[in-house]
Design goal:
The protein is α+β, with helices and mostly antiparallel strands. It contains five helices and nine strands.
């Protein structure tokens, strides 16, 4: 499975977030104890970093996979980049869901939502917005807007949000992020090193009433997210974008 994703994009990653209603502790003992517990499970995560708004533990940037954990005022976040196996895709997220509530005094009442994000980066030298419009809008009624030699598309970032029926509190969002239009901080000229990104985000509000059920709820999100990636994101977003990028390279 991971190898099939790597064939479609330059990088892919899975991030998870536990978001809380009250501020988390940032004093030395609970944070260092959680990070030490994490390092015992993942020895390569041995770099402690302090950023402006977060404390982070991460592996080396060139590690495969690259893993990280970050504590912000109201969230615990984990991520893995370019995992090689399905177990590597989710192990750090499961560990965080299992142990971080106890180290950081998170209760079910405090837990606002749990989130899972699948991200795919596609390297593209041409105008990202034109690529996205051609790949995803071609043949649709909106395509008529593109059939004009006097215009250049400079902002095409589709976002589709939905609630999942029969699963209370569960939301899903598909998003395309481009980085070469006039509204982007990246250069608008061809050759930009920033990628086109495809995101699938699943968020479950008020997920559990017992912390023992938190890893089970995460596994439910994983099962749902994996199905949405394989059945919808890959054939309807990643492959059309990849094919359009390849067609412009000749």
């Amino acid at each position: 499975m991971p190898s099939s994703y790597r064939a479609l994009c330059s990088d892919f990653y899975i991030n998870a977030k536990l978001n809380v209603r009250m501020e988390l502790p940032t004093n030395r003992e609970p944070v260092l104890d959680l990070f030490e517990r994490t390092r015992r499970s993942f020895p390569a995560m041995n770099a402690f970093r302090r950023y402006k708004d977060e404390l982070a533990l991460e592996s080396a940037a060139n590690a495969t996979p690259h893993r990280w954990m970050a504590i912000r005022a109201a969230s615990v976040r984990t991520g893995v980049v370019n995992p090689n196996t399905e177990e590597e895709m989710y192990s750090v997220h499961r560990m965080a869901a299992e142990v971080s509530p106890y180290y950081l005094s998170i209760s079910p009442l405090d837990l606002e939502y749990i989130e899972l994000l699948y991200g795919f980066d596609l390297a593209a030298k041409e105008n990202h917005d034109e690529i996205t419009a051609a790949a995803l809008l071609g043949g649709s009624p909106l395509a008529a807007l593109l059939e004009n030699d006097e215009i250049t598309i400079n902002d095409c970032q589709p976002l589709l949000g939905m609630k999942v029926l029969n699963e209370q509190g569960l939301e899903a969002h598909f998003e395309i992020k481009t980085r070469s239009g006039s509204n982007s901080t990246a250069s608008s000229t061809p050759g930009t090193s920033d990628p086109i990104s495809v995101y699938l985000t699943l968020r479950c509000y008020d997920p559990v009433t017992d912390l023992k059920d938190l890893t089970g709820k995460l596994d439910e999100l994983i099962e749902r997210g994996q199905a949405l990636v394989d059945e919808y994101a890959v054939p309807n977003l990643l492959i059309p974008l990849r094919d359009e990028i390849v067609s412009r390279s000749y």
